[in-house]
Amino acid sequence: MPTHPTPPVINKTDSPRPQPEQQEKRAAKVGEEMEKEEPRRKLSPADSRAVALAFIRALGAGARLPAAADQPDAYSSLVRAILSSAAVSASPAPRVSCTIAVSPAVTNAYNTLHGGAVAAVAEAVGMACARAAAGDKEMFLGELSTGYLAAARLDSEVDVEAQILRKGRSVVVTTIEFRLKDTKKLCYTSRATFYIMPVASL
């Protein structure tokens, strides 16, 4: 650990009070010594932009999507591909449950379930639960909030369950819980609000 010079102790009865100029010089000297001990490189604005751009590109920004992504309904196919054991319970209140298999296709750089995949599954399962409660009506997602509490590792399985929190004439609110299959630990929670499209009366 670097040691910093200790200011000398001044006896007020023997020595005069140091002037502001002396205090500034002393502070400057201490600062110079600290810079020598812990050198820091200051980036120019151009260097800062280059570092930020390299970081964004390392995350995959700008990479070309596979040809399968251009197919119709590719997004829904991606979500369905990681879901299994889907079940719907209508009594006493609609519930939709399924299981996520955490495969490499839906993991992030840390080999855990990607946050975007969590949100996509929450929307799909929440919509299924809302339709089970409101019938086959046209509806759209109005709001989705997700809390990321713990990570689901690669090759693990996550149980997902959606249930109705509130149902009205024009709105359905669902809650979605994600729990690790082996430990039942809660890792993600979502709340989705769906608005029912009004039917035109002729």
From TrEMBL:
Record-linked Gene3D superfamilies: Hotdog Thioesterase (3.10.129.10)
One MF term in the entry's GO annotations: fatty acyl-CoA hydrolase activity
Renumbered residue ranges of the record's region Disordered: 1-45
Biased composition (Basic and acidic residues): 22-41
Domain Thioesterase: 110-187
Alphabetized PANTHER family for the sequence: OS07G0462700 PROTEIN (PTHR21660:SF12), THIOESTERASE SUPERFAMILY MEMBER-RELATED (PTHR21660)
Family membership noted in the UniProt record: Belongs to the thioesterase PaaI family.
Protein name: Thioesterase domain-containing protein
Phylogenetic classification of the source organism: Eukaryota, Viridiplantae, Streptophyta, Embryophyta, Tracheophyta
